[in-house]
Amino acid sequence: MNTSPEKLLAATRSAAEAQVVALSSASDSLLSAVEHLAALNLNTTRAVLDDAIVLGRAAAAVREPKAWFELQLGMIVPALQKSFAYARAVGGIATQARSELLGLAESGVSQSLQGVIATLENLDRNAPAGSATGSRFAAEALKSAVANASSAYDGASQAVKQVSAAAEASADHAATATVDAIDQATKATVTMLKTAA
C-alpha cells in the first residue's frame, strides 16, 4: 500500500482546515443576521418613540372626547401596518440566515462525502495486486447513494420552497385584508361619530 502517514496527515489537516473555514463562515452568517436584527430593532424603536411623541402632542391638543376617540382610532391602522412590516422584516432576516447556514451545511456534507469517496478510491488504487476490490464497490455504492440522496433532497427542498412561498403569499394577503377591514371599520366609526355630533 502506497498511502504514507504523511499523506494521511495532510488529508486530515486539509479536512480540519475546511471545517475551520466552514465554522468561520457560519459564524459570520450568524453575526450578520444578528447585526441586521439589531439594526431593525433600533430603527423600529426610534420609529415607535417618534410616533409616541406625535401622539402625545396630538393628544395634548385634543379638547373633547370625540376627538380623542378619533385620534386613537386613526392610530390603529398605521400601528398594524408597521407591526406587519416589522414581522415581515424579521422573517426575511431569519429566512436569509437559515438559507446561508443550510447552504454551508450542505457544502460541508458534500465535501465530507467526496473526501470519503476519494479515500476509498485511493485505497482501491493502492491496494496490492490481486487483493479484493471491496473498496471500489464501496466507493461506487457510496457515489450512488450520494447521488440518490442529493436528488431526493433537491426535490424535497424545491417542494418546501414552493410551499413556503405559497404560505408567505397567503399570510401577506390575509394581513393586507385584515388591515383593510380594520381601516374600513375605523373610518366608518369615525364617520358615525362625526354625524352623531
Structure, explained:
InterPro entries: Phasin (IPR018968), Phasin_subfam-1 (IPR010127). The chain is mainly alpha-helical. It has one domain (5-196). Helix content is 92%, strand content 0%. The protein has three helices and no strands. The protein has helices at 5-61, 65-125, 134-196. α2 (65-125) runs antiparallel to α3 (134-196). The protein starts with a helix and ends with a helix.
Helix content: over 70%
Give the overall pLDDT as a whole number: 80
Give the number of helices.
3
Spans where pLDDT lies below 50 across 5 or more residues: none
Please count the beta strands (DSSP E, at least 2 residues each). Answer: 0
User: Could you say which structural class the secondary elements and strand pairing correspond to?
Assistant: mainly alpha
Strand content: under 5%
Main beta sheet, described?
none
Q: Could you state the order of secondary-structure elements as H and E?
A: HHH
Oligomer: single chain
Principal-axes geometry comes out as elongated
- Supply the number of structural domains: 1
First-to-last CA distance: 99 Å
Determine Rg (CA atoms, Å): 30 Å
Pfam families: Phasin_2
InterPro entries: Phasin, Phasin_subfam-1
